[in-house]
Fold:
Amino acid sequence: MRNGWSLVKEDWKRLVVRVAGTNWGHVSLDPLYRDTVPDSAGVYMICASTRITNQLVFSRLYEVVYAGQEGASLRRRFLEHCNRPKEEIKKACDCLRPPLDYWFTTAPLGELDGLEGAVIDCFGPPANLVRKLTIKARLGPAEPA
Structure:
């Protein structure tokens, strides 16, 4: 999986189309904010800043660390990340400036894959270890080797 921002213009065009009409909210990744997160399907991102705060340029940097989708409850997924974070999220907490932020938007089930995929393709979050790929293929008659 590629990490870091995409340099492919088509990735960004696809993201612009996918996020059109979405409304994003965010809270600190802390269980105290659970009631602010919707109890419905959607896409989310966990974001962070650097710990380097004595240099203006570094204190302003902000990165998508992890992106995902939830088909039932963004709130439930939020609480999972708060209470039982994956190893990669724990690493982000250890080396980046806490608290991490949880950005979210609700979306219909049929749009989750496309929206999540566009976010991952554009931002290449380092804590996403697996990227769902759709392989388009067609089976034909078997040929001897």
Remarks:
- The chain has one domain: 9-123.
- The first helix runs from residue 9 to 19.
